[in-house]
Amino acid sequence: xxxxxxxxxxxxxxxxxxxxxxxxxxxxxxxxxxxxxxxxxxxxxxxxxxxxxxxxxxxxxxxxxxxxxxxxxxxxxxxxxxxxxxxxxxxxxxxxxxxxxxxxxxxxxxxxxxxxxxxxxxxxxxxxxxxxxxxxxxxxxxxxxxxxxxxxxxxxxxxxxxxxxxxxxxxxxxxxxxxxxxxxxxxxxxxxxxxxxxxxxxxxxxxxxxxxxxxxxxxxxxxxxxxxxxxxxxxxxxxxxxxxxxxxxxxxxxxxxxxxxxxxxxxxxxxxxxxxxxxxxxxxxxxxxxxxxxxxx
Length: 297
Known about the structure:
globular, alpha/beta, 9 helices, 9-stranded mixed β-sheet
């Protein structure tokens, strides 16, 4: 008899997961190509997001480029760098199913949210956008992602077509929010682009319903010597110091990795990458080692 009750419970839990998955998939399909509406401009948002388009999704960021000699030769002019970035990130991101699902969920699923913490993982290799959304709502904490762990030890991640809800650890997430509050006193909207080979771009957005928001981004930061990376990561976060280092280099300027400006940007990028990595682990519970390192612990 107990075995039967256990089987019935498993079937019921499976049905609940299936229904939740289908509801989230339906929300994503509202803006997916071939699933009805094909333009985000035709989409009618609800809840807090109905007041205005989330400004963080526009990628209004200050760009810093640390490029290898080959990349700098290919992008000699500012116009080349703008064109390359626009094609690889802006155009690519907006055409992915993941990004469209993210927009649909933000506009309809979370309702009257008070705070949104979002990580986008723009993966050039898979041609997809993975995302994590952790929302503080009037009904408590709500989390949704289209990422799942894969590989040895489940420390790599891949995007899936069906978004899924996940449970947030209240203690960890509230600690994460406190760290974001601390960071936002000093950080500005910076994007750090380092020499990389098909490395995901990580975007972190923290949006509050009363208007303030922060967006930061890092791509390829961890593609550096293990000893140097460890040395940079062990330092306590100095958000004001990171901003001061970044401001010593003009936006959109292409600098070499081993130059003084390149080393300063690497040091500043370590602080931003560490923050993104902390938010990731505070939400999904397991790290993504590509943010702040290439090796599993």
